[in-house]
Design a protein that fits this description.
Elements lengths: L3 E2 H4 L2 H13 L10 E2 L6 E5 L7 E8 L2 E5 L6 H10 L5 E5 L10 E4 L31 E4 L23 E5 L13 E8 L2 E5 L6 H10 L4 E3 L3 H8 L6 E7 L11 E4 L15 E5 L8 H9 L7 E4 L6 E8 L2 E5 L6 H10 L5 E5 L11 E4 L16 E2 L12 E4 L10 E5 L5 E8 L6 E5 L6 H11 L3 E6 L13 E3 L33 E5 L5 E3 L1 H7 L1 E6 L4 H5 L16 E6 L2 E5 L15 E3 L4 E3 L5 E6 L5 E7 L8 E2 L21 E5 L7 E3 L6 E9 L14 E8 L4 E8 L5 H8 L11
Parallel strand pairs: 5-7, 11-13, 18-20, 25-27
Antiparallel strand pairs: 1-9, 2-3, 3-4, 4-5, 4-8, 6-8, 9-10, 10-11, 10-15, 12-15, 13-14, 16-17, 17-18, 17-22, 19-22, 20-21, 23-24, 24-25, 24-28, 26-28, 29-32, 30-31, 31-39, 32-38, 33-34, 35-36, 35-40, 37-38, 40-41, 41-42
Length: 753
Amino acid sequence: MRPVSVWQWSPWGLWLCLLCRLCLGSPSPSTDPEKRAGSQGLRFRLAGFPRKPYEGRVEIQRAGEWGTICDDDFTLQAAHVLCRELGFTEATGWTHSAKYGPGTGRIWLDNLSCTGTEQSVTECASRGWGNSDCTHDEDAGVICKDQRLPGFKDSNVIEVEHNPQVEEVRLRPGVGWGRRPLPVTEGLVEVKLPDGWSQVCDKGWSAHNSHVVCGMLGFPSEKRVNTAFYRLLAQRQQHSFGLHGVACVGTEAHLSLCSLEFYRANDTARCPGGAPAVVSCVPGPLYTASSGQKKQQQSKPQGEAHVRLKGGAHPGEGRVEVLKAGTWGTVCDRKWDLQAASVVCRELGFGSAREALSGARMGQGMGAIHLSEVRCSGQEPSLWKCPHKNITADDCSHSQDAAVRCNLPYTGVEAKIRLSGGRSRHEGRVEVQVGGPGSLHWGLICGDDWGTLEAMVACRQLGLGYANHGLQETWYWDSGNVTEVVMSGVRCTGTELSLDQCAHHGTHITCKRTETRFTAGVICSETASDLLLHSALVQETAYIEDRPLHMLYCAAEENCLASSARSANWPYGHRRLLRFSSQIHNLGRADFRPKAGRHSWVWHECHGHYHSMDIFTHYDILTPNGTKVAEGHKASFCLEDTECQEDVSKRYECANFGEQGITVGCWDLYRHDIDCQWIDITDVKPGNYILQVVINPNFEVAESDFTNNAMKCNCKYDGHRIWVHNCHIGDAFSEEANRRFERYPGQTSNQII
């Protein structure tokens, strides 16, 4: 079993920050990485909106008070020092005049002067702590390179100053130590103290205490345990008690937040008449330990969830979205805290919250924002049961979407997979462990049909986030001594927690290409893009055009017309086109880039541009039962930043063989009057149909979420005109609303019914 580290999972810093902000009555800055600076006792964070995780207004906590830095005399050298304090390798730029918004509290430093080589900002020259003639309109910010210093953890830190604290917690099974299936859900509570692992005296132990321990270990709830069995077992074993008098309310995210009493070193009689505390936890649906539990859970009727996570690189993390009136929407981060985040985590079958994140740290949503100022006690069964404020249009923007990171149970799946031969730990040839006890060995995976979805699962199992690429050839990576292919035919949906859960061939391995150079590989990344289509714009701009054939030679060359166009009487006659504008936003945490490099882009003389992807979007007209009656497609004519959110700079443009892509916070607009921005409906008969648009349909480029890549609309075509309505992203509606959409009877007149 892997112990749970308090240094990785602790909420103290976040809890204290939120408390300070509530007292000051100021808006909640983002709870970004915070880091102690040696003996100086300073802490650093990035704040402000809008921004990415590696940029923002620099805030320093000194003497328990957060403050900012004035931009007077600020330089890139000072930014280098501050980025290292924040856990990044270096700075790529800095900002002045409160670009990320004015801060609050003290202005700690003014006229800061650094050479760039200092180990701490305390070594730089300045006017002295708290001595400034600036206002918060002059707050300085930094833009750091999105690369962490070795060993840096993106987490908050529990301050351990005067009292000993619980560093780690685990459950030790009473019998069968090391042979129980993972995750371990029941056993003796053991805590790691400075002098080693110790048990907890069960005198006064309550269900609230068990609830907190289970939450730390990744389980949503606790259950009663047969203490008589464990007391009988305890009589035959020796114990080392280090903790007693545990008193939790039940809403704490970590045991160290409870009232604790530690035994002194000279205590001779520890836990007289007592026994070690025992806890039994109930695993969430993703982590049921046995088939019996699975069958029991599956037999219960499951209603549709009213909360979900989107955009997270790891299980149990993501942007919080809630269901209201049949439509999914986000939650504003105002007053967002660990209690509310823990309610979300437990509702989804995970443990308590490890972090409550603000400032759209898991990417921005699109559409409605349903909740604001959510205030939970931590005991509610659902986020909807917490007091909250109904959102208004002026209250929040998607740059303030709330997110969570939940505690997860240890399943050991990451120990059954590894990468070899890569230039870094984030890439390499995939090796998996197979065999039973005594015969475990490592082997390779056949590269046939290995793609982005399979690579996503491998990277998730490795704990390395998303997959940038799924590779079918890995000859440039040394395989070492591992040459046997032990898995083939792997096909994943992309949501599995490990490759074992994907469909694959059994013990009979079948590969088209048997050499080790054709085995599976991955390149993983902590961030990924996320493309969404602006569905309302499609609905607003759809219309029919009868276009003469003599104006469609280029479109025919690019295969943008129906197959019947080949037999048309060129250049006479016309084609009937359903035209509409499409605005494709990148709301992820990494730029969207074409899979192919510039060397393989294809020049098209007709339109005077390079195509960087063979197929970028599918356009289809479907009957209500799903039969395709017309189709279109769009190669990536050229991917570029047409427009961007405020304070986001354009990075990609197609002119002069420029780099192609879509920057985070920007969108690529294909106007309705551009060639191939249509569906050829010349052969479509009048009737009721579904218009479907799918971005990145072949999963050629990795994204954090593929479920939002499709958009659907109801449409009626009477042979002369077309009405398009009810356009929505594929995962924007509830299951019931989607069923109503699919059962839509159509229109009997020009009116929407």
